[in-house]
């Protein structure tokens, strides 16, 4: 089975003018970058950076876990980005991952393990007015800590909040009223809401840290981090099962959305990856769900198949998909893979891309094990997690450049096409219109770094 695409050692050729590019060097071996892309390390020294986004003036806001929200002015063309004038926007050590901004850029949202906070935000002053108001409460668990936020751009006043399980295999998640392992929908203009009062978009989602809305058709997707240390029929199968999952939730503006309020299996059913290692697998295929049980496993498999929503795609177990972001046309879904701990050979530790078709669905079938194409990865994963970057949050800037945080190393990277153009053509076209600090000569002379890698 093809588990991992191997990279050869990347060759870095820096052709850019020294003064126009930041030259930060990482404490670990230079990452491998796929052909056609360029990557650059643009910030270090952050406190476990997680979610990030760009405001209406093109400033970068990033959640530093245990510190709060920080802002930077962003300058430079191509991959030669500099982050300047760091400013603390919100100082709150409880904030740990989620961040969102309203369409008009004036309301900022962030999450802690227990609550979602709302702030009046001023992008001119890079500041918030007063304290945040807790608009959603009651999410604390002993297990998962992230509460991913997603504001729908297709439906007004719908804030999606994803909450994970209380423990690895959390049997309380079989009760929809408990509120564990769910994505719920809230009206962000209301205050003082309990998490369990939200409308359930999906449940049985162990820890759906990545949540995204396809801009082309409004389809909502989530990336689920699946269970560790699982056994079936008393046999350890955790090395190559269960799969991480990409689940489909339909459109929020569809009053007859057939996926609304559906159960995706956890804690009873799990996506299969390596079916040969699953006892009594029968004709179970990659991407179908199976039951974990001491007895009756095969009987329960039919329940998982018939009564639970199957993933639309599966990924290698333990790769840990954290953030997912579509490009403007909904043709590519980018994924950060935070990386494994519960397996012998480290996997994940990369940013990858999934192709989507004009029908708003992935081009690969649900049985595929090759839906992810790596863009940037650690060149020596045997040293992970110790000497590796660990991708966490993703964000687009107005020029269509894609940024990601690495929480373990306190870093931010930018990804562009070879030659410096943004990865998102549509944003690059509109965002590159003459603005305050756009410089045509800069674009031409900033050939930046060419990084070559070959897929084996
Ligand atoms: C990869 O990392 C491991 C563990 O730190 C180290 O022993 C090994 O020499 C490294 N391999 C290369 C090719 O650098
Ligand atoms: C639902 C089902 O098939 N239950 C069976 C599980 O296994 C026990 C022991 O073999 C049977 O007694 C049950 O009927």
From TrEMBL:
Entry keyword annotation includes Signal: yes
InterPro entries: 6-blade_b-propeller_TolB-like, Beta-prop_PDH, Quinoprot_gluc/sorb_DH_b-prop, SMP-30/CGR1_Lactonase
Signal sequence extent: 1-18
Alphabetic keyword roster: Signal
Highest taxon, organism lineage: Eukaryota
Every Pyrroloquinoline quinone-dependent pyranose dehydrogenase beta-propeller domain range: 31-417
Keyword Signal part of the UniProt annotation: yes
Short name of one Pfam family: TrAA12
Record protein name field: Soluble quino protein glucose dehydrogenase
Gene source species: Lojkania enalia
